Amino acid sequence: MSDSTLTLPPLAVRTAAPAARPLPAAPRAPRRWQWPLGAVLPLALLALWEILARTGALPPNLLPAPSKVLGTIAELARTGELWPHLGLTLARVGAGFALGSLAATALGALTGYAPLARRLLDPLLQGVRNIPSLAWVPLFILWMGIYETSKVVLIAVGVFFPVYLGLMSGVQGVDRKLVEVGRMYRLSGLALVRRVFLPATLPAYLVGLRNGLGLGWMFVVAAEIMGANKGLGFLLVDGQMTGRPQTILASILLFAILGRTTDAGLAWLSRRLLRWQDTHGSEQG
Amino acid sequence: MLRIEHLGKQFGPQVVALQDVSLQVQPSEIVALVGTSGCGKSTLLRIVAGLEAPGTGRVLINGAPVVGPHPAVGFLFQEPRLLPWLTVRQNVEFGIAHLPAAERAARSAGALARVGLADFAGAWPRQLSGGMAQRAAIARALVARPNLLLLDEPFSALDPFTKMDLQEHLLGIWADDRHTLVLVTHDLEEALVLADRVVVLRSRPGRVHHTFHVDLPRPRRRTAPDFQAQKQRLLEALGVAA
Ligand SMILES: Nc1ncnc2c1ncn2[C@@H]1O[C@H](COP(=O)(O)OP(=O)(O)OP(=O)(O)O)[C@@H](O)[C@H]1O
Ligand SMILES: [Mg+2]
Which stretches are transmembrane (chain A) (predicted)? Predict the structure, then answer.
């Protein structure tokens, strides 16, 4: 620091930096440990549930104890039966998410950037969006068969719209003044997109991706309930057919964990990419 | 350096923003444009910058007509307009991405030191105060080494102390680099401190009303009697003072 002040010409020395905020280079104070307040209520409810189930106050054929649900998962893991279900569901969501968000990225960028494309395409897409997505299921099965393609496409349809809307409104909402800065430095076409539009759109796009992923998890359940012989959704149906509520609850729990984990991954990515943001939430990191 | 010939600009059928504006600016000259709100000062500057197309007439920079943003022309907007996703240093280097990295680093370090922000090179724009952000914007405009710098009310949002400080800064940099400055301002003292020539525009339609030469030696002191006398003359030219 003393080095840089030494090299300052007299002009700069005259100007003391006013209202200097904490330097960004300063090491961040380690975050204080906080009691996970949010965990108290769920844990208490689980304990209550466990007690009620053990004392027989809850009918075990309808609502088995949490310990039994965990036992079911452990058993499925031990026999190895769990992994194909888990893997296949993850693969379907992954493929559907990739397909849906890729298509949405291309179309959202186009309609956001080019008013002509927006006027041409957006009404159609908005119309399609209003079709309840599950209504597609019979058609997709008819077109693409009961196997993987129809499932992945259904998930992709679910993922598509939030990503598309997020990106389009993001591109449209890019501050004209910042675009002008780019133009002033003679950026155009791809360079302008890469250096101004892309970063400016990133926050809205990432929100779109997170919403899309959430819908992807919803749609995989629908797709797997409609007809599958593997996958976590199949476990739901299987548990119902064979009268084993612990299997259904185990599957629900796994869905919750997977959905939460993948969303946390995207949330982490967002925080990394959006460190620059000046928002109400950004100070807490 | 800069020649504006019979420039006219109309927005829609009603609004005549500029009409038959002609102006010549010599190399290293500092010209201030003043005039009431809405008389077309920003429009004039934006046309010179190539951000807006002229309606009628033309603008020549070093003899060549302006068709778009020009590499030798810098623009300092009223707001800092820093890109929030780039650090202060990256913002300063935004316009010189075509240069080799070492050259970029040297130039941005120099420019940041010149505006007194050397210690904030790694900061995000959100961590700067308004005056610091505007200084970063000045650094960004200067690293590209423009021959002609256009400034649209660059200090109007700042407090009087920061403002005077930045005016000093700008003059100091100008003394070193000797680029041409065209500055829009609402502040007559600012015009008198900085400019060799004050051009008064009149509104609806916007046209040159009066040109006023400032014959004061630099550095100029606001409290000096001849400065006050010039201010009085300028006010009279504007038809404000009795
Ligand atoms: N993009 C535009 N579309 C339509 N009208 C415009 C546009 N830009 C400017 N105008 C009009 O042109 C006139 C001149 O505007 P301009 O911004 O150049 O004024 P100004 O002298 O810079 O004013 P101020 O001192 O308030 O900044 C105004 O009447 C304004 O309404
Ligand atoms: Mg203006």
Answer: 93-116, 128-146, 152-171, 215-236, 248-269
**Which ligand 1 atom is at minimum distance from the Cα of B206?**
14
Q: State whether residue A271 sits within 8 Å of chain B by CB.
A: no
Predicted pLDDT at A225: 86
CA distance A102 to A205: 12
Q: Position of tokens 């005259």?
A: A14
Task: Identify the nearest ligand to the CA of B51 by its number.
Answer: 1
Q: Between B19 and A7, name the one with better pLDDT.
A: B19
Ligand 2 midpoint to CA B152 (Å): 7
Q: What is the pLDDT of residue B161?
A: 84
Instruction: Label residue B213 exposed, middle or buried (CB < 10 Å: 0-12, 13-18, 19+).
Output: exposed
What are the pLDDT digits (tens) for B3-25? 898 888 888 888 887 888 889 99
Instruction: Judge whether residue A157 has pLDDT over 70.
Output: yes
pLDDT at A15 (0 to 100): 42
Could you tell me if the CB of B42 is within 6 A of ligand 1? yes
The whole-angstrom distance between A200's CA and the closest CA on chain B is 8
Taking 90 as the threshold, does the pLDDT of residue B94 lie above it?
yes
The residue segments making up the domain with residue A168 are 65-277
Q: Where are the domains of chain B?
A: 2-72+146-238, 84-145
- The band of A34, judged by pLDDT with boundaries at 50, 70 and 90, is confident
CATH of the domain at A199: 1.10.3720.10
Residue-wise DSSP of A132-161: -GGGHHHHHHHHH-SSHHHHHHHHHHHHHH
Asked, for residue A256, whether it belongs to a domain, the answer is yes
Q: Are B89 and B112 in contact (CB under 8 A)?
A: yes
Q: Does domain B2-72+146-238 have CATH number 3.40.50.300?
A: yes
Q: Using the beta-carbon criterion (under 8 Å), do B126 and A278 form an inter-chain contact? A: yes
Q: What is the pTM of this model?
A: 0.80
Computed from CA positions of residues A187, A189, A191, A192, in that sequence, does the dihedral angle turn out positive or negative? positive
Q: Is the confidence at residue A54, as pLDDT, over 90? A: no
Q: Which residues of A touch B71 (CB under 8 A)?
A: 186
